[in-house]
Automatic annotation (TrEMBL):
Membrane topology per record: Multi-pass membrane protein
Listed name of the protein: Amino acid permease
Transmembrane segments annotated in the record for this chain: 29-47, 68-95, 115-138, 145-165, 194-215, 227-253, 275-297, 323-342, 348-369, 381-401, 407-425
Pfam families: AA_permease_2
Keyword Repeat: no
Upper classification of the organism: Bacteria, Pseudomonadati, Pseudomonadota, Alphaproteobacteria, Sphingomonadales
InterPro entries reported for this sequence: AA/rel_permease1
Length: 442
Protein backbone atom coordinates (compact mmCIF):
# COMPACT_ATOMS: atom_id res chain seq x y z
CA UNK A 1 0.00 0.00 0.00
CA UNK A 2 2.83 2.41 0.85
CA UNK A 3 4.79 1.92 -2.37
CA UNK A 4 1.52 1.99 -4.31
CA UNK A 5 0.62 5.34 -2.76
CA UNK A 6 4.04 7.00 -3.03
CA UNK A 7 5.22 5.90 -6.48
CA UNK A 8 2.73 7.43 -8.80
CA UNK A 9 1.77 10.82 -10.12
CA UNK A 10 4.85 12.45 -8.56
CA UNK A 11 7.37 10.65 -10.75
CA UNK A 12 5.07 9.78 -13.66
CA UNK A 13 3.61 13.25 -14.19
CA UNK A 14 4.92 15.89 -11.76
CA UNK A 15 8.56 15.51 -12.81
CA UNK A 16 7.57 17.61 -15.82
CA UNK A 17 6.06 20.32 -13.61
CA UNK A 18 9.14 20.29 -11.36
CA UNK A 19 11.54 20.49 -14.31
CA UNK A 20 9.71 23.56 -15.59
CA UNK A 21 10.25 25.29 -12.23
CA UNK A 22 13.83 24.22 -11.42
CA UNK A 23 15.43 22.75 -14.56
CA UNK A 24 17.92 19.92 -13.86
CA UNK A 25 18.07 21.17 -10.25
CA UNK A 26 14.73 19.43 -9.79
CA UNK A 27 16.99 16.62 -8.55
CA UNK A 28 17.88 18.85 -5.58
CA UNK A 29 14.19 19.61 -5.11
CA UNK A 30 13.53 15.88 -4.89
CA UNK A 31 16.22 15.55 -2.21
CA UNK A 32 14.84 18.44 -0.14
CA UNK A 33 11.24 17.25 -0.36
CA UNK A 34 12.32 13.69 0.39
CA UNK A 35 14.36 14.75 3.43
CA UNK A 36 11.44 16.67 4.95
CA UNK A 37 9.13 13.74 4.24
CA UNK A 38 11.63 11.33 5.82
CA UNK A 39 11.64 13.32 9.07
CA UNK A 40 7.84 13.44 9.02
CA UNK A 41 7.77 9.69 8.28
CA UNK A 42 9.81 8.95 11.42
CA UNK A 43 7.33 10.95 13.50
CA UNK A 44 4.44 9.17 11.78
CA UNK A 45 5.99 5.77 12.49
CA UNK A 46 6.26 6.53 16.21
CA UNK A 47 2.75 7.96 16.47
CA UNK A 48 1.25 5.10 14.46
CA UNK A 49 2.64 2.55 16.92
CA UNK A 50 1.80 4.67 19.98
CA UNK A 51 -1.79 5.28 18.84
CA UNK A 52 -2.63 2.33 16.55
CA UNK A 53 -6.09 3.62 15.62
CA UNK A 54 -7.57 4.81 12.33
CA UNK A 55 -7.51 8.49 11.50
CA UNK A 56 -3.77 9.16 11.15
CA UNK A 57 -2.79 12.76 11.88
CA UNK A 58 -6.35 13.60 12.94
CA UNK A 59 -6.35 11.01 15.73
CA UNK A 60 -2.79 11.85 16.82
CA UNK A 61 -3.70 15.52 17.13
CA UNK A 62 -6.83 14.63 19.12
CA UNK A 63 -4.72 12.62 21.58
CA UNK A 64 -1.92 15.17 21.92
CA UNK A 65 -3.58 18.58 21.60
CA UNK A 66 -7.37 18.27 21.73
CA UNK A 67 -10.56 18.47 19.73
CA UNK A 68 -10.20 21.86 18.03
CA UNK A 69 -6.69 21.09 16.77
CA UNK A 70 -7.88 17.65 15.64
CA UNK A 71 -10.76 19.19 13.73
CA UNK A 72 -8.46 21.59 11.86
CA UNK A 73 -6.00 18.80 11.04
CA UNK A 74 -8.85 16.54 9.96
CA UNK A 75 -10.14 19.39 7.83
CA UNK A 76 -6.69 19.70 6.23
CA UNK A 77 -6.57 15.93 5.68
CA UNK A 78 -9.92 16.07 3.91
CA UNK A 79 -8.41 18.69 1.62
CA UNK A 80 -5.23 16.65 1.08
CA UNK A 81 -6.80 13.28 0.39
CA UNK A 82 -9.61 14.64 -1.76
CA UNK A 83 -7.27 16.67 -3.94
CA UNK A 84 -4.64 13.92 -4.20
CA UNK A 85 -7.27 11.51 -5.50
CA UNK A 86 -8.39 14.18 -7.97
CA UNK A 87 -4.81 15.04 -8.98
CA UNK A 88 -3.78 11.45 -9.60
CA UNK A 89 -6.96 10.87 -11.57
CA UNK A 90 -6.10 13.83 -13.78
CA UNK A 91 -2.53 12.52 -14.11
CA UNK A 92 -3.89 9.09 -15.02
CA UNK A 93 -6.09 10.70 -17.64
CA UNK A 94 -3.02 12.42 -19.13
CA UNK A 95 -1.59 8.98 -19.98
CA UNK A 96 -4.93 7.35 -20.81
CA UNK A 97 -6.29 10.07 -23.11
CA UNK A 98 -3.90 9.49 -26.06
CA UNK A 99 -4.58 5.75 -25.90
CA UNK A 100 -8.34 6.24 -25.72
CA UNK A 101 -8.21 8.70 -28.63
CA UNK A 102 -6.09 6.41 -30.82
CA UNK A 103 -7.84 3.14 -30.00
CA UNK A 104 -11.47 4.17 -29.44
CA UNK A 105 -11.69 7.60 -31.06
CA UNK A 106 -12.84 9.33 -27.86
CA UNK A 107 -13.01 13.11 -28.51
CA UNK A 108 -10.33 15.20 -26.80
CA UNK A 109 -13.00 17.60 -25.52
CA UNK A 110 -14.39 14.84 -23.29
CA UNK A 111 -10.95 14.01 -21.87
CA UNK A 112 -9.80 17.51 -20.84
CA UNK A 113 -11.21 20.13 -18.49
CA UNK A 114 -12.04 23.72 -19.49
CA UNK A 115 -8.47 24.85 -18.65
CA UNK A 116 -7.16 22.69 -21.53
CA UNK A 117 -9.81 23.72 -24.05
CA UNK A 118 -12.08 20.76 -23.34
CA UNK A 119 -15.45 20.30 -21.69
CA UNK A 120 -14.97 17.67 -18.98
CA UNK A 121 -12.33 15.11 -18.00
CA UNK A 122 -14.44 11.96 -18.16
CA UNK A 123 -11.57 9.43 -17.88
CA UNK A 124 -10.59 10.95 -14.53
CA UNK A 125 -14.15 10.64 -13.28
CA UNK A 126 -14.39 7.06 -14.57
CA UNK A 127 -11.27 5.85 -12.78
CA UNK A 128 -12.47 7.41 -9.51
CA UNK A 129 -15.73 5.48 -9.84
CA UNK A 130 -13.88 2.24 -10.57
CA UNK A 131 -11.61 2.51 -7.54
CA UNK A 132 -14.57 3.41 -5.32
CA UNK A 133 -16.33 0.23 -6.45
CA UNK A 134 -13.25 -1.81 -5.44
CA UNK A 135 -13.21 -0.26 -1.97
CA UNK A 136 -16.92 -0.83 -1.46
CA UNK A 137 -16.48 -4.47 -2.46
CA UNK A 138 -13.87 -4.94 0.25
CA UNK A 139 -10.31 -3.94 1.20
CA UNK A 140 -8.91 -7.49 1.32
CA UNK A 141 -9.63 -8.09 -2.38
CA UNK A 142 -8.51 -4.54 -3.17
CA UNK A 143 -5.15 -5.18 -1.46
CA UNK A 144 -4.47 -8.21 -3.68
CA UNK A 145 -5.18 -6.22 -6.84
CA UNK A 146 -3.11 -3.34 -5.45
CA UNK A 147 -0.05 -5.58 -4.96
CA UNK A 148 -0.22 -6.79 -8.55
CA UNK A 149 -0.55 -3.26 -9.94
CA UNK A 150 2.37 -1.99 -7.83
CA UNK A 151 4.52 -4.69 -9.41
CA UNK A 152 3.44 -3.55 -12.90
CA UNK A 153 4.21 0.09 -12.08
CA UNK A 154 7.67 -0.53 -10.63
CA UNK A 155 8.54 -2.84 -13.55
CA UNK A 156 7.65 -0.07 -16.02
CA UNK A 157 9.91 2.41 -14.18
CA UNK A 158 12.78 -0.09 -14.15
CA UNK A 159 12.30 -0.55 -17.91
CA UNK A 160 12.38 3.25 -18.36
CA UNK A 161 15.72 3.54 -16.54
CA UNK A 162 17.10 0.61 -18.54
CA UNK A 163 16.25 2.32 -21.86
CA UNK A 164 17.03 5.94 -20.94
CA UNK A 165 20.29 5.47 -19.00
CA UNK A 166 22.45 4.60 -22.08
CA UNK A 167 21.51 8.01 -23.58
CA UNK A 168 22.82 9.94 -20.56
CA UNK A 169 24.65 13.14 -21.59
CA UNK A 170 26.00 15.48 -18.93
CA UNK A 171 25.41 18.41 -21.30
CA UNK A 172 21.68 18.00 -20.65
CA UNK A 173 22.30 18.96 -17.01
CA UNK A 174 23.87 22.32 -17.89
CA UNK A 175 23.03 24.89 -16.67
CA UNK A 176 22.12 22.84 -13.63
CA UNK A 177 20.27 25.54 -11.68
CA UNK A 178 18.88 28.09 -14.15
CA UNK A 179 16.21 29.57 -11.85
CA UNK A 180 17.93 29.87 -8.44
CA UNK A 181 17.16 28.33 -5.06
CA UNK A 182 14.38 30.38 -3.43
CA UNK A 183 10.96 30.86 -4.99
CA UNK A 184 10.90 33.88 -7.33
CA UNK A 185 8.44 35.21 -9.88
CA UNK A 186 9.70 35.66 -13.44
CA UNK A 187 8.71 38.29 -15.97
CA UNK A 188 6.04 35.92 -17.27
CA UNK A 189 4.42 35.77 -13.82
CA UNK A 190 5.42 32.13 -13.24
CA UNK A 191 6.99 31.21 -9.87
CA UNK A 192 10.21 29.21 -10.29
CA UNK A 193 13.22 28.06 -8.27
CA UNK A 194 14.32 24.90 -6.47
CA UNK A 195 12.03 25.53 -3.50
CA UNK A 196 9.08 26.32 -5.77
CA UNK A 197 9.65 22.94 -7.41
CA UNK A 198 10.14 21.17 -4.07
CA UNK A 199 6.86 22.60 -2.77
CA UNK A 200 5.02 21.08 -5.74
CA UNK A 201 6.80 17.73 -6.10
CA UNK A 202 6.59 17.23 -2.34
CA UNK A 203 3.54 15.16 -3.21
CA UNK A 204 5.87 12.73 -5.00
CA UNK A 205 6.92 11.44 -1.57
CA UNK A 206 3.88 11.50 0.61
CA UNK A 207 1.57 8.57 0.66
CA UNK A 208 3.09 6.80 3.63
CA UNK A 209 0.56 8.68 5.78
CA UNK A 210 -2.20 6.67 4.10
CA UNK A 211 -0.70 3.59 5.79
CA UNK A 212 -1.41 5.09 9.20
CA UNK A 213 -5.13 5.32 8.40
CA UNK A 214 -5.20 1.51 8.09
CA UNK A 215 -4.14 0.90 11.70
CA UNK A 216 -7.36 -0.81 12.75
CA UNK A 217 -7.19 -3.22 9.80
CA UNK A 218 -3.57 -4.29 10.40
CA UNK A 219 -2.72 -7.61 12.08
CA UNK A 220 0.10 -6.26 14.28
CA UNK A 221 -0.02 -2.45 14.04
CA UNK A 222 2.73 -1.76 16.57
CA UNK A 223 5.20 -3.62 14.34
CA UNK A 224 3.71 -3.50 10.84
CA UNK A 225 2.99 0.25 10.63
CA UNK A 226 6.62 1.23 11.27
CA UNK A 227 7.83 -1.32 8.72
CA UNK A 228 5.34 -0.09 6.12
CA UNK A 229 6.04 3.61 6.61
CA UNK A 230 9.85 3.55 6.77
CA UNK A 231 10.28 0.70 4.28
CA UNK A 232 8.13 2.34 1.63
CA UNK A 233 10.01 5.64 2.00
CA UNK A 234 13.41 3.98 1.49
CA UNK A 235 12.24 1.95 -1.51
CA UNK A 236 10.65 4.94 -3.21
CA UNK A 237 13.64 7.25 -2.62
CA UNK A 238 15.85 4.80 -4.53
CA UNK A 239 13.34 4.50 -7.38
CA UNK A 240 12.92 8.29 -7.72
CA UNK A 241 16.65 8.99 -7.82
CA UNK A 242 17.18 6.52 -10.65
CA UNK A 243 14.17 7.60 -12.73
CA UNK A 244 14.69 11.36 -12.40
CA UNK A 245 18.42 11.10 -13.11
CA UNK A 246 17.81 8.96 -16.21
CA UNK A 247 15.15 11.34 -17.58
CA UNK A 248 17.15 14.54 -17.04
CA UNK A 249 20.34 13.04 -18.43
CA UNK A 250 18.71 11.57 -21.53
CA UNK A 251 17.05 14.75 -22.92
CA UNK A 252 17.00 18.47 -22.11
CA UNK A 253 14.53 19.35 -19.37
CA UNK A 254 12.68 21.77 -21.65
CA UNK A 255 11.73 18.85 -23.89
CA UNK A 256 9.39 17.41 -21.26
CA UNK A 257 8.70 20.37 -18.94
CA UNK A 258 4.99 20.66 -18.07
CA UNK A 259 4.14 17.60 -20.17
CA UNK A 260 1.13 15.55 -18.90
CA UNK A 261 3.11 12.36 -19.74
CA UNK A 262 6.81 13.36 -19.31
CA UNK A 263 8.41 9.90 -19.11
CA UNK A 264 6.58 8.61 -22.18
CA UNK A 265 7.61 11.80 -23.99
CA UNK A 266 11.27 11.20 -23.07
CA UNK A 267 11.11 7.72 -24.62
CA UNK A 268 9.54 9.06 -27.81
CA UNK A 269 12.30 11.67 -28.07
CA UNK A 270 14.81 8.81 -27.79
CA UNK A 271 13.19 7.03 -30.73
CA UNK A 272 11.44 4.38 -28.63
CA UNK A 273 7.72 4.79 -29.48
CA UNK A 274 6.81 1.24 -28.51
CA UNK A 275 8.50 1.61 -25.12
CA UNK A 276 6.67 4.92 -24.66
CA UNK A 277 3.38 3.19 -25.41
CA UNK A 278 4.22 0.43 -22.91
CA UNK A 279 5.04 3.00 -20.22
CA UNK A 280 1.81 4.89 -20.90
CA UNK A 281 -0.17 1.66 -20.74
CA UNK A 282 1.59 0.69 -17.49
CA UNK A 283 0.73 4.08 -16.00
CA UNK A 284 -2.89 3.62 -17.04
CA UNK A 285 -2.95 0.19 -15.43
CA UNK A 286 -0.96 1.01 -12.30
CA UNK A 287 -1.67 4.62 -11.27
CA UNK A 288 -5.00 3.52 -9.76
CA UNK A 289 -2.92 2.07 -6.88
CA UNK A 290 -2.27 5.66 -5.75
CA UNK A 291 -5.93 6.54 -6.10
CA UNK A 292 -6.87 3.43 -4.12
CA UNK A 293 -4.51 4.21 -1.23
CA UNK A 294 -5.61 7.84 -0.85
CA UNK A 295 -9.26 7.10 -1.52
CA UNK A 296 -9.04 4.51 1.23
CA UNK A 297 -7.43 7.04 3.56
CA UNK A 298 -9.99 9.71 2.74
CA UNK A 299 -12.97 7.48 3.45
CA UNK A 300 -11.40 6.41 6.77
CA UNK A 301 -10.76 10.01 7.80
CA UNK A 302 -14.44 10.79 7.16
CA UNK A 303 -15.37 7.62 9.05
CA UNK A 304 -13.34 8.43 12.19
CA UNK A 305 -14.45 12.07 12.29
CA UNK A 306 -18.07 10.94 11.92
CA UNK A 307 -17.58 8.33 14.68
CA UNK A 308 -16.32 11.16 16.91
CA UNK A 309 -19.38 13.23 16.07
CA UNK A 310 -17.46 15.99 14.27
CA UNK A 311 -19.28 15.02 11.06
CA UNK A 312 -22.80 13.52 10.81
CA UNK A 313 -22.70 10.11 12.53
CA UNK A 314 -24.58 8.49 9.67
CA UNK A 315 -21.34 8.62 7.67
CA UNK A 316 -19.76 6.19 10.16
CA UNK A 317 -22.00 3.27 9.20
CA UNK A 318 -20.26 0.35 7.50
CA UNK A 319 -21.47 -2.37 5.14
CA UNK A 320 -21.43 -6.14 5.76
CA UNK A 321 -17.91 -6.23 4.25
CA UNK A 322 -16.71 -3.62 6.76
CA UNK A 323 -16.46 -0.81 4.18
CA UNK A 324 -17.84 2.67 5.00
CA UNK A 325 -20.06 2.88 1.90
CA UNK A 326 -21.65 6.24 2.65
CA UNK A 327 -18.34 8.03 3.16
CA UNK A 328 -16.94 6.38 0.03
CA UNK A 329 -19.86 7.56 -2.12
CA UNK A 330 -19.69 11.02 -0.56
CA UNK A 331 -15.97 11.14 -1.41
CA UNK A 332 -16.72 10.13 -5.02
CA UNK A 333 -18.97 13.15 -5.41
CA UNK A 334 -16.31 15.57 -4.12
CA UNK A 335 -13.18 14.26 -5.82
CA UNK A 336 -14.97 13.44 -9.09
CA UNK A 337 -16.19 17.02 -9.47
CA UNK A 338 -12.70 18.44 -8.83
CA UNK A 339 -11.03 16.02 -11.26
CA UNK A 340 -13.55 16.74 -13.99
CA UNK A 341 -12.84 20.46 -14.27
CA UNK A 342 -9.53 21.55 -12.66
CA UNK A 343 -5.86 21.34 -13.86
CA UNK A 344 -3.22 19.12 -12.28
CA UNK A 345 -0.76 21.74 -10.99
CA UNK A 346 -3.41 23.78 -9.16
CA UNK A 347 -4.91 20.67 -7.55
CA UNK A 348 -1.52 19.40 -6.38
CA UNK A 349 -0.42 22.74 -4.90
CA UNK A 350 -3.54 22.99 -2.72
CA UNK A 351 -3.29 19.31 -1.73
CA UNK A 352 0.30 19.93 -0.61
CA UNK A 353 -0.83 22.77 1.63
CA UNK A 354 -3.12 20.44 3.57
CA UNK A 355 -0.44 17.76 3.72
CA UNK A 356 2.27 20.06 5.04
CA UNK A 357 0.03 21.23 7.87
CA UNK A 358 -0.85 17.63 8.75
CA UNK A 359 2.79 16.50 8.70
CA UNK A 360 3.84 19.37 10.97
CA UNK A 361 0.98 18.47 13.34
CA UNK A 362 2.20 14.86 13.60
CA UNK A 363 5.70 16.05 14.51
CA UNK A 364 4.21 18.40 17.14
CA UNK A 365 2.08 15.53 18.50
CA UNK A 366 5.14 13.30 18.77
CA UNK A 367 7.04 15.94 20.79
CA UNK A 368 4.05 16.69 23.05
CA UNK A 369 3.56 13.01 23.89
CA UNK A 370 7.30 12.47 24.39
CA UNK A 371 6.99 15.05 27.17
CA UNK A 372 3.53 14.12 28.49
CA UNK A 373 3.67 10.31 28.23
CA UNK A 374 7.35 9.36 27.97
CA UNK A 375 6.78 5.81 29.27
CA UNK A 376 3.75 4.95 27.12
CA UNK A 377 4.36 1.77 25.04
CA UNK A 378 5.75 2.56 21.60
CA UNK A 379 6.37 -0.12 19.02
CA UNK A 380 8.84 2.26 17.39
CA UNK A 381 10.70 5.30 18.71
CA UNK A 382 11.96 7.92 16.26
CA UNK A 383 15.73 8.45 16.63
CA UNK A 384 16.81 11.88 17.89
CA UNK A 385 13.18 12.92 18.26
CA UNK A 386 14.02 16.43 19.49
CA UNK A 387 16.01 16.99 16.29
CA UNK A 388 13.80 15.10 13.82
CA UNK A 389 10.60 16.73 15.08
CA UNK A 390 11.70 20.39 14.79
CA UNK A 391 13.36 19.71 11.40
CA UNK A 392 10.09 18.21 10.11
CA UNK A 393 8.11 21.20 11.41
CA UNK A 394 10.53 23.82 10.02
CA UNK A 395 10.80 22.01 6.68
CA UNK A 396 7.02 21.84 6.31
CA UNK A 397 6.69 25.54 7.13
CA UNK A 398 9.35 26.50 4.55
CA UNK A 399 7.77 24.34 1.86
CA UNK A 400 4.35 25.82 2.68
CA UNK A 401 5.73 29.34 2.23
CA UNK A 402 7.23 28.25 -1.10
CA UNK A 403 3.83 27.22 -2.50
CA UNK A 404 2.18 29.56 -5.06
CA UNK A 405 0.64 32.68 -3.54
CA UNK A 406 -2.81 31.81 -4.88
CA UNK A 407 -2.61 28.50 -3.03
CA UNK A 408 -2.11 30.35 0.27
CA UNK A 409 -5.33 32.30 -0.32
CA UNK A 410 -7.36 29.22 -1.23
CA UNK A 411 -6.02 27.42 1.84
CA UNK A 412 -7.03 30.39 4.01
CA UNK A 413 -10.55 30.26 2.56
CA UNK A 414 -10.75 26.50 3.19
CA UNK A 415 -9.72 26.89 6.83
CA UNK A 416 -12.07 29.82 7.39
CA UNK A 417 -14.86 27.52 6.24
CA UNK A 418 -13.54 24.84 8.60
CA UNK A 419 -13.61 27.20 11.60
CA UNK A 420 -17.17 28.24 10.74
CA UNK A 421 -18.32 24.60 10.57
CA UNK A 422 -16.61 23.81 13.85
CA UNK A 423 -18.32 26.69 15.62
CA UNK A 424 -21.70 25.82 14.11
CA UNK A 425 -21.67 22.03 14.53
CA UNK A 426 -18.51 20.08 15.33
CA UNK A 427 -17.52 22.00 18.47
CA UNK A 428 -20.54 20.57 20.35
CA UNK A 429 -19.58 16.96 19.53
CA UNK A 430 -18.67 14.41 22.16
CA UNK A 431 -16.67 11.49 20.74
CA UNK A 432 -17.61 7.86 21.33
CA UNK A 433 -13.90 7.02 21.52
CA UNK A 434 -11.68 7.88 24.50
CA UNK A 435 -8.69 9.08 22.52
CA UNK A 436 -6.65 9.87 25.59
CA UNK A 437 -7.29 6.34 26.80
CA UNK A 438 -5.72 4.98 23.63
CA UNK A 439 -2.36 6.19 24.96
CA UNK A 440 -3.00 5.33 28.62
CA UNK A 441 -4.05 1.76 27.80
CA UNK A 442 -1.45 1.20 25.10
Amino acid sequence: MGVGAIVGTGILTLIGVGAAKAGPAVLVAFVIAGFVCACAALAYAEMATLVPASGGAYTYSYVAVGQLAAWMIGWSLILEYSLVVSAVSVGWSGYAAPLLHDWLGVPWALMNGPHAGGIVNLPAVAIIGGVAAMLIYGMRSSASVNALLVLVKVSALVAFVWMAAPHFDSANLSPFNPFGFAKSTGADGVERGIMAAAAIIFSAFYGFDAIATAAEETRNPRRDLAIGIIGSMLACAAIYTLVAGAALGAVGFRDFADSPEPLALVLRRLGEPEAARFLALSAVVALPTVILAFFYGQSRIFFVMARDGLLPRGLARVSSSGAPVRTTLFTVLIVGTIAAFFPLNEIVALANAGTLVAFAAVAVSMLVLRRRAPDAPRGYRAPAAWLVGPVAIAGCVYLFVSLPSTTHWWFLVWNALGVALYCAYAGRARPDTDHAGEVRDG
